[in-house]
Design brief:
heterodimer, A: alpha/beta, Alpha-Beta Plaits, Rossmann fold, 4-stranded parallel sheet, 18 strands, about 40% helix, globular, B: alpha+beta, v583 fold, 3 domains, 4-stranded antiparallel sheet, 16 helices, about 20% strand, OXTCase_su_AllG_h-dom (chain B), AllG-like (chain B), DUF1116 domain-containing protein (chain B)
Chain lengths: ~475, ~475
């Protein structure tokens, strides 16, 4: 085995970009391990665990650790690394005389200087590591720019402080841990491509909002704006600070005729504060929790309020083998499928909704911090979920696939073979596919690929969960 | 009901992105206008202090107030007077550049300048005698120029008999002082103390100072803000190049000099004309009075002094009073005179970084294409130096503009939080003194301040 270990002082790239580079290197012939990452304690630990001896480094340095079967393979991987990093540099760098801004503050100033060309910046999207997100977000608020904080792990005191300053400045803080927003037609973070329309959405739940807006889109109803507020906004502590701002703003927006509020049930006093706003625009609540409508039902209420037909939500039933199982008859694999229901989710809200509906089974949210520390979100990188799927020997697996901007450009490319392998083992696979016909991945093409691999595919997560529940019951009863 | 409008809902989206590249690329795929932040983590160990300082509700307004004062100052050269009169200096008291220092820790050029000042004041009979008395310390008081509204280039030595330029701020009412510039080569400020150095200082006290005072009395105050603004547009950056400013100053003062002292006019004008840096000291006093206007704003993270004593590089911050935050002075990277080389260079020295403190010098490098060799070779290096300073400064100067950047104001007002966030350090142009006492100037170039001065100030702000 040949090792290459290097620490490059002061070279910075974001973690997702570096994971892409690592993945490209690891896929080369002869390469068994490739770690290209910022030298954080975690990443240095990973490299040490893999048997590399890492020289002293700080989190501001780039760590390169490559192991390959031959010296040539190491050298070739090193060349590829240079090529990939240079490509990244060329993409982000520009002429030296026009150095890119180093802070959000500076970027806001640059935007203001070039205002004649493209106008002042309207919103900042902050996705730096959580401990630094506050610094960039404060810059935006002080510059009078609304900010979406995609980062998680931001202390709640900082969230409250930001939201109070934002109110003084007349701007909105979306987040922290805000996964999706659609503003003036631009999708920020993980965002489905939505047709423009009369429904404004305020969401304390990213994937919940994606489910709601995707179903509206499938029903032919468009969205004016989707404003995320962060999962903690409606807690007693944060007190709905951004929700209130966002509701008022949509109330004043001439394009918005109806507002949907997507959230976990808010703290009681927060719910009262929100109800007491006295808005002129009708608000439909889509609340997630025991005793509440599921999101699909909430969307159907919205359609009712708009006087629109509720369509048949697109679904692609599984191939006959899986059907046979679901109907309790003994197929070729009939005996093998007995086993529990496993939920392998990338979206936290979708996971919660499915678990509530299923009422049984073991559900894992791979988008949770526990699984995203040091690696990309499962909507971008399916590795962990695939490993979990491959480990299921029997029973029913329910998983979500979320399409849209920012997400994996072709999720079925890696998931469909995993689904097929599971089905061959006799596992029944049910997929909740959240997306629209406008999404770059192609909703129907993704559905077809997953369906051909053996999965039952639903555009409604609630319908998928019910179907999985029935399958699991059928197994239990068989 | 309070109505609330968000401009982002009605405008064409234009997004700033900081962080994960894929999220930015997703916007590019939608053809959404975007500005990308070239984000990197802040300096190691500063995250908690940064969060605390940025959360300080006073900071934004305090910084606006402080830097507003700095850029609105209107420095006027109003007089030339002996230090003993204007500063009340007693015999045996010497002011020096940079943060406070003792004889024991003083570098070669600082010691050389102290020896020269002892000789000049008649407090020692020989260099050896001066050295012994300074080492013994009795009857000797050393203090930082900055503690006395004063700045001095290089060693920055001020003794009671030296004549000082007196600059007042017509906007905020402050006053600041700087000594008279001796010229280049073997001069006291670079640590030389030979007979020609002492003779020149005597002539400056006997002739130059009184003549300039008489001339100023005739001409009235000289508007240094206007003069600096013009010089920037004539290729000076006002630290390592003062040729245009010196010429403008001579043009303003020459008739009054001739009228006030016809018998000395020729030698005075010849002296000033022979020294392209004559204006530097007036510019430094102007910078000092501007920076002092920005002092003592509670909560402000604005740097109001950067200064070196040849051993330490120190900064002071508006919200932190007179405290110094120091680190070791670096050895400048530059070009050398004659046969001198880097081995002959003393660590960074002088109060002339007051020019960078107020957005001139290295910060205005893009205005001075004639001296770009100091910063690496070509004009794009100079532009890059200035452009990078906008990342760590609070404002753009309304009067000091750079023609080559479309008359953009110079980057002014270093914010310690921005230094910690970007890791970008102030670009400082400087002369280089010989490390051995008595040598004088050996070159000129660029130097980086020590990062710990800024992180220490940040920590102090976080506790303030």
């Amino acid at each position: 085995m040949n090792d290459l270990v290097e620490v490059r002082a002061g070279v910075y790239h974001d973690s997702v970009s570096l994971m892409r580079v690592s993945q490209a290197l690891a896929g080369r012939p002869g390469v068994s391990v490739a770690i290209v990452a910022m030298a954080t304690e975690l990443n240095v630990g990973l490299a040490c665990d893999a048997g590399f001896s890492v020289p002293p480094a700080t989190p501001g340095d780039l760590l390169v650790a490559i192991r390959a079967s031959s010296e040539d393979a190491v050298q070739e991987a090193a060349c590829e690394l240079e090529r990939q990093l240079a490509a990244r540099g060329a993409a982000s760098g520009s002429r030296r005389e026009e150095a890119p801004p180093r802070t959000t503050r500076s970027a806001a100033r640059a935007a203001a200087r070039s205002a004649a060309r493209s106008g002042d910046a309207t919103v900042a999207l902050v996705s730096v590591p959580g401990e630094y997100a506050f610094l960039e977000a404060v810059d935006a608020v002080e510059a009078g720019i609304s900010v979406m904080i995609f980062s998680d792990n931001v202390p709640v005191e900082q969230e409250i402080l930001l939201k109070d300053r934002a109110r003084e400045q007349g701007v909105l803080v979306m987040g922290p841990d805000c996964g999706t927003a659609v503003i003036g037609g631009a999708g920020l973070g993980f965002a489905n491509v939505l047709r423009p329309g009369p429904v404004g959405v305020v969401a304390a739940s990213g994937t919940g909002a994606q489910q709601v807006t995707s179903l509206l889109d499938l029903a032919g109803v468009g969205v004016s704006h989707l404003l995320g507020v962060g999962g903690r906004d409606l807690s007693a502590e944060v007190g709905g600070r951004s929700t209130i701002q966002a509701l008022r703003a949509l109330d004043a927006d001439p394009a918005t005729e109806l507002i949907v509020l997507v959230s976990k049930p808010p703290a009681a006093e927060v719910a009262r504060a929100v109800q007491d706003l006295g808005l002129g625009t009708k608000v439909v609540a889509a609340l997630l929790g025991p005793g509440q409508d599921d999101l699909t039902t909430a969307v159907e209420r919205v359609l009712g309020a708009l006087g629109r037909e509720v369509p048949e939500w697109p679904a692609w039933p599984a191939s006959p083998a899986e059907h046979a199982v679901s109907e309790g008859t003994s197929g070729p694999a009939g005996d093998a499928v007995r086993g529990p229901l496993r939920g392998l989710y990338s979206g936290g809200t979708l996971c919660t909704e499915a678990a509530l509906i299923a009422g049984t089974g073991e559900f894992t949210d791979f988008g949770d911090d526990e699984y995203t520390r040091g690696r990309a979100h499962p909507m971008i990188d399916p590795t962990l979920r695939l490993e979990a799927l491959d480990a299921v020997e029997s029973g029913v697996v329910l998983l979500d696939v979320v399409l849209g901007q920012g997400a994996d450009p072709d999720p079925s490319a890696r998931l469909a073979p995993g689904v097929a392998r599971a089905c061959e083992r006799g596992v029944a696979v049910v997929v909740a596919l959240v997306g629209t016909d406008g999404d770059p991945q192609g909703l129907r093409a993704q559905a077809a690929r997953l369906n051909e691999a053996g999965a039952a595919v639903f555009t409604s997560n609630a319908a998928a969960a019910r179907h999985a529940r029935e399958l699991a019951r059928a197994h239990a009863g068989a | 009901m309070t109505s609330m409008t968000l401009s982002m809902l009605s405008r064409e989206p234009h997004v700033i992105t900081a962080g994960t590249a894929v999220l930015g690329e997703a916007l590019d795929q939608q053809a959404v206008a975007r500005i990308e932040v070239d984000w990197r983590p802040p300096l190691p160990g500063t995250a908690a202090a940064l969060a605390r300082v940025l959360a300080d509700p006073r900071r934004e307004r305090a910084n606006a107030t402080a830097v507003g004062r700095m850029v609105s100052a209107r420095p006027m050269l109003v007089g030339v007077r002996p230090a003993r009169d204007v500063l009340g200096l007693e015999p045996g008291t010497f002011l020096h550049a940079g943060p406070p220092i003792t004889w024991e820790r003083a570098s070669g050029p600082m010691r050389g300048a102290l020896i020269g000042a002892m000789l000049f004041e008649g407090l020692a009979s020989s260099p050896k005698d001066a050295e012994d008395r300074l080492a013994a310390g009795s009857g000797i008081t050393l203090d930082s120029c900055h503690h006395h509204r004063t700045v001095g280039p290089m060693a920055g030595l001020v003794s009671p008999s030296m004549w000082m330029l007196e600059v007042t701020d017509a906007e905020h009412g402050g006053t600041a002082y700087c000594s008279l510039n001796e010229g280049l080569g073997k001069v006291l400020r670079y640590g030389a103390y030979g007979p020609e150095v002492i003779d020149r200082l005597r002539w400056m006290g006997d002739v130059l100072g009184p003549v300039l005072r008489a001339a100023l009395d005739r001409s009235g105050p000289l508007d240094l803000r206007a003069l600096v603004a013009q010089a920037l547009q004539m290729g000076d950056e006002l630290h390592n190049r003062n040729r245009a400013a010196t010429s403008l100053m001579v043009r303003e003062l020459a008739p009054a000099i001739v009228e006030a002292a016809p018998e000395h006019a020729a030698e005075v004008l010849r002296f000033i004309n022979g020294n392209d840096h004559f204006f530097l000291n007036a510019g430094m006093a102007a910078a000092k009075v501007s920076a002092d206007a920005a002092r003592d704003v509670p909560g402000s993270s604005l740097v109001v002094a950067m200064a070196r004593n040849g051993t330490d590089f120190g900064i002071q911050v508006s919200g932190l009073g007179d405290r110094w935050f120091t680190g070791p002075a670096g050895v400048p990277d530059g070009l050398y005179l004659g046969a001198y080389g880097p081995a002959d260079a003393n660590p960074d020295i002088g109060d002339s970084t007051i020019t960078e403190t107020t957005g001139l010098g290295g910060f205005a490098m893009a205005a001075a294409p004639a001296i770009v060799r100091f910063v690496g070779g070509d004009v794009s290096d100079a532009v890059a130096a200035t452009t990078s300073m906008y990342e760590i400064t609070l404002a753009e100067h309304p009067a000091y503009q750079i023609p080559g950047l479309g008359f953009r104001g110079t980057p002014v007002g270093v914010d310690v939080t921005l230094v910690a966030r970007t890791g970008v350090l102030p670009v400082v142009n400087t002369g280089i003194a010989g490390r051995v006492a008595g040598t004088g100037q050996v070159g000129a170039g660029l130097v980086s301040p020590p990062v710990e001065a800024f992180t220490a100030a940040l920590e102090a702000l976080a506790k303030a």
